[in-house]
């Protein structure tokens, strides 16, 4: 009897994506660009946070930003208008995430040579983006106070794959039943190495610490080239 | 003569199959006098809290049950059960949406005979659930004030698919920059028929009006 060949389609998609992602990451490391992938629910404040971070860092660093949306160009426009940096809008026509190949294709249109820092703002979604390595050096997820402290229980993979969790809209803590300690415990149970920054992108609270972390990570990459 | 190459568009056929299956489910439910409502939103917009508030406002006017779909955890189902609403927890095993067949399995598991209303609380996600017809008679989405008024522009399909839009957490309007008019214009540009309700599931504001509208819709659907 001949053997039946079983192909795990799902697995092979991920394996292929991981290879592309590794290549992209290597390229970014070699050119001295720190590549950060920002993920969150819709409306957690990805764009507002990126604008605030870029404005704090743009005098010291050469920064690029790519925005993924289904069809609007609101975010890239907002970033360009409010920071003055070059921003690229990627339309993924209905897809729920961006993978390494899509990122690599977008980078054909966007020159990253000489950039110290490249931000990717992913689609607002806590499910699908967590499954696809984009080639970023670090994954950052934002959990905003109004969403509630139970998100790690419901969307565990996002917190497992994220190196950094920004807890945003802390200026609204008084208005919501959000237990910061519980949120942290739940995330640490999924990912003991997660780093936390409580922030308010609106008031600016906590953002200096995030900038310090970014500069630290960039140092690690730059010193690896030397 | 060369044979014609057969091209199969997988995504289209998946969606088409699901659409047919969803229509079957909708017909079956109608013949049983059950209205299925598919509740969708971002994570943390307040789907479960809204259902709890509606339960109070229904005040026993509807025989109803809930299916809580989540990737993991039974937090939401436990909350609903504690409030005395018959509920099942559906785990999607990492999937980002529910389709008609998964919904059918859930309804079977709920086993609520003579239910006038069954609510499917979908996965918190504005993208994928909008693509898959679950067999629901009513699609409802929640947009919470802290998420911002630009969501209809960014996730258009969700607003095109929904019959009812519930704007939640209006008690926080003073602390967020949320332009009601801009949001309404954008949602109506996508879907002129969409019915918009403003509520705070936390304080109860607007919940009675929403509950009354739902009771009316459910009774109408079931009488057809």
Question: What is the topology?
Answer:
The complex is a heterodimer of chains A (226) and B (224).
Chain A: H1 9-30, E1 34-40, H2 46-57, E2 63-69, H3 74-83, E3 87-91, H4 100-108, E4 117-124, E5 138-144, H5 151-154, H6 156-161, E6 164-168, H7 180-190, E7 195-198, H8 207-225
Helix pairs in contact in A: 2-3, 2-8
Chain B: H1 10-32, E1 35-41, H2 47-58, E2 64-70, H3 75-82, E3 87-91, H4 100-110, E4 117-121, E5 138-144, H5 151-154, H6 156-161, E6 164-168, H7 180-190, E7 195-198, H8 207-223
Helix pairs in contact in B: 2-8
Textual characterization of the structure:
With 226 residues, chain A is of the alpha/beta class. Chain A has helices at 9-30, 46-57, 74-83, 100-108, 151-154, 156-161, 180-190, 207-225, and strands spanning 34-40, 63-69, 87-91, 117-124, 138-144, 164-168, 195-198. Chain A has a 7-stranded parallel β-sheet with strand order 3-2-4-1-5-6-7, sandwiched between helices. In chain A, helix 2 (46-57) runs parallel beside helix 3. The N and C termini of chain A lie far apart (58 Å). Chain B is of the alpha/beta class. Chain B has one domain (21-219): Rossmann fold (3-Layer(aba) Sandwich). In chain B, helix 7 links the parallel strand 6 and strand 7. At the A-B interface, helix 5 of A face helix 5 of B.
Key descriptive features of the protein:
heterodimer; A: 226 residues; alpha/beta; Rossmann fold; seven-stranded parallel sheet; 8 helices; 19% strand; B: 224 residues; 18% strand; globular
């Amino acid at each position: 009897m001949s053997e039946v060949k079983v192909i795990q389609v799902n697995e092979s998609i991920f394996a292929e994506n991981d290879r592309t992602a590794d290549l992209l990451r290597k390229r970014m490391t070699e050119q001295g660009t720190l590549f950060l992938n920002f993920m969150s629910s819709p409306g957690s404040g990805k764009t507002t946070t990126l604008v605030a971070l870029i404005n704090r860092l743009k005098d010291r660093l050469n920064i690029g930003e790519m925005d993924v949306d289904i069809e609007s160009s609101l975010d890239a426009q907002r970033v360009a208008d409010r920071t003055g940096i070059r921003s690229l809008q990627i339309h993924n026509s209905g897809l729920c995430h961006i993978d390494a190949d899509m990122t690599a294709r977008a980078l054909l249109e966007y020159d990253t040579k000489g950039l110290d820092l490249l931000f990717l703002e992913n689609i607002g979604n806590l499910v699908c983006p967590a499954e696809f390595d984009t080639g970023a050096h670090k994954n950052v997820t934002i959990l905003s106070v109004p969403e509630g402290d139970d998100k790690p229980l419901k969307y565990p993979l996002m917190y497992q794959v994220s190196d950094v969790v920004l807890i945003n809209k802390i200026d609204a803590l008084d208005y919501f039943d959000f237990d910061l300690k519980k949120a942290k415990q739940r995330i640490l149970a999924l990912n003991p190495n997660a780093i936390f920054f409580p922030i308010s992108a609106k008031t600016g609270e906590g953002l200096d610490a995030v900038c310090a972390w970014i500069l630290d990570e960039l140092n690690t990459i730059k010193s690896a080239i030397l | 003569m060369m044979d014609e190459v057969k091209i199969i568009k997988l995504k289209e056929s998946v969606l088409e199959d699901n659409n047919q299956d969803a229509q079957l489910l909708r017909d079956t439910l109608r013949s049983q006098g059950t209205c299925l409502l598919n509740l969708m939103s971002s994570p943390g917009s307040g789907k479960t809290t809204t259902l709890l508030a509606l339960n109070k406002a229904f005040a026993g006017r509807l025989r109803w049950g809930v299916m809580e779909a989540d990737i993991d955890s039974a937090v939401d189902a436990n909350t609903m059960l504690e409030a005395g609403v018959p509920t099942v927890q559906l785990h999607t095993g990492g999937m980002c949406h529910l389709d008609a067949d998964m919904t059918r399995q859930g309804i079977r598991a709920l086993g609520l005979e003579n239910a006038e209303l069954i609510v499917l609380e979908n996965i918190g996600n504005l993208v994928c659930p909008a693509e898959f017809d679950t067999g629901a008679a009513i699609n409802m989405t929640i947009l919470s004030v802290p998420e911002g008024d630009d969501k209809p522009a960014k996730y258009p399909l969700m607003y095109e698919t929904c019959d009812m839009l519930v704007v939640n957490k209006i008690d926080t309007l003073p602390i967020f920059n949320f332009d009601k008019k801009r949001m309404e214009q954008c949602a109506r540009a996508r879907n002129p028929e969409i019915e918009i309700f403003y509520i705070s599931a936390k304080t109860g504001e607007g919940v009675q009006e929403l509950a009354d509208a739902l009771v009316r819709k459910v009774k109408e659907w079931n009488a057809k």
